UniProtKB/TrEMBL annotation:
InterPro entries: GTP_cyclohydrolase_FolE2, GTP_cyclohydrolase_FolE2/MptA. One of its GO terms (molecular function) is GTP cyclohydrolase I activity. The keyword Hydrolase applies. Its EC number is 3.5.4.16. The gene is folE2. This is GTP cyclohydrolase FolE2. Signal peptide: none annotated. Keywords: Hydrolase. The record marks C145 as: May be catalytically important. Pathway: Cofactor biosynthesis; 7,8-dihydroneopterin triphosphate biosynthesis; 7,8-dihydroneopterin triphosphate from GTP: step 1/1. It comes from Dethiosulfatarculus sandiegensis.
Length: 258
């Protein structure tokens, strides 16, 4: 059978990333409360392609993934990237693993238990200068506007926001610790299940703890700065404003190695 991918391309243009995107695949990740958690990831896998090749071998990405079955986690991402490089004769390899992760939360007054979903991503790359791993955690929060609270005779506008933290680290850190740190940096954390007494509690807590989007990124950044395992981080906060049809947004990046 003709191997079209292996034909020569004469345009002299190397490709930085080529591969497969949005593969749904079961994975098992470490879970501090339960040992492990099974979830389903959406995975992107890419390699570079030298200028003289017409195409990459798409089937081999899936072969690599299949070799690892559902055993795809932060600890073996380097092995997977090495396997991609080897199987596809590439100089660089990239993998992005996005998945929902569930944590059981307890409502503040009633003690009602419920699961909350967080979106997590592992982003790994390997090239001539070595391995690069980034963990991304998206945490939903409540924020209440300090300006609105100050100037209004009654109430204050509040909204759901999402804080997106990305970290590079020198030692293992728990996703749960990053989530906790963020939840403690907002006007209030969010829950899937709240009874009336809980609703009163979270409403009053947010009112007593007003925060701009700037306050959230500063609060989270200050705390991440003190975590010794973390060597680089970014913090993004987006508030889906309840008085506007647009979001308020803030971003901080810090490289502790500099
Ligand atoms: N490179 C490339 N392949 C594509 C694309 N769209 C579909 N494919 C298909 O991906 C399939 C797998 O290609 P390969 O991995 O080279 O398959 P193979 O030659 O059987 O496998 P190897 O022997 O390991 O190279 C082929 O059927 C391609 O046609 C595309 O845009 N680019």
């Amino acid at each position: 059978m003709e191997d079209v991918q292996n034909q020569t391309d004469h345009r002299n243009i190397p490709i930085d990333k080529v591969g497969v995107k949005d593969i749904r695949h079961p994975i098992t990740v470490l879970d501090r409360a339960n040992g492990v958690q099974k979830t389903v990831a959406s995975i992107n896998m890419y390699v570079n392609l030298p200028h003289h090749y017409k195409g990459t071998h798409m089937s081999r990405f899936i072969e690599v993934l299949s070799d690892y079955s559902d055993n795809i986690n932060l600890r073996n991402l380097k092995d997977i990237l090495e396997a991609m490089k080897k199987r596809l004769n590439a100089h660089s390899a990239h993998i992005e693993v996005d998945f929902p992760y569930f944590i059981k939360k307890t409502a503040p007054v009633s003690g009602a238990r419920s699961l909350l979903e967080y979106n997590i991503a592992y982003r790994g790359s390997i090239n001539g200068s070595g391995l690069d791993l980034v963990v991304e955690v998206k945490v939903p929060v409540t924020t209440l506007c300090p300006c609105s609270q100050m100037i209004s005779d009654q109430g204050a506008h509040n909204q759901r926001g999402v804080v997106n933290v990305a970290v590079r680290f020198k030692e293992f850190i728990w996703i749960e610790d990053i989530i906790r740190l963020v939840e403690e940096s907002a006007s209030c954390e969010v829950f899937s299940l709240l009874k009336r007494q809980d609703e009163k509690y979270v409403t009053e807590k947010a009112y007593g703890n007003p925060m701009f989007v700037e306050d959230v990124v500063r609060e989270v950044s200050g705390k991440l700065d003190k975590v010794p395992e973390i060597i680089w981080f970014t913090v993004e906060s987006e508030n889906f404003e309840s008085i506007h049809n647009h979001s308020a947004y803030a971003y901080v990046e810090k490289d502790k190695r500099k």
